[in-house]
Amino acid sequence: MTSSPKLQIPDHIVYQDIDGELVLLDLNQGVYYGLKDVGKRCWELIAENQDRTGIIEAVVQEYDVSPELLISDLDTLLADFTTKGLVTIAE
User: Fold this and answer.
1) From CA 12, how far away is CA 29, in angstroms rounded?
2) What is 30-70 written as a DSSP string?
3) Is the model's pLDDT at 5 over the cut of 90?
């Protein structure tokens, strides 16, 4: 199995769990985002230095979701995170 690229959270993104919702704040833009449930878990896995493959494996084990649906939704979520500058792809 080949590894997927590592995802990194830039220093200008801070986050904290507040009453079960993960709140992300982009200090450069002054914009915040909220994540719950699976999105929150995916962020936690990114923070634990999991790559895309590790996130997929963990979430499939933890939630009742088909791998095909998860992969589609995760790729959309990661593209959104990347576009907004919330995560970067490590070189």
Assistant:
1) 9
2) TEEEEE-HHHHHHHHHHHTT--HHHHHHHHHHHSS--HHHH
3) no
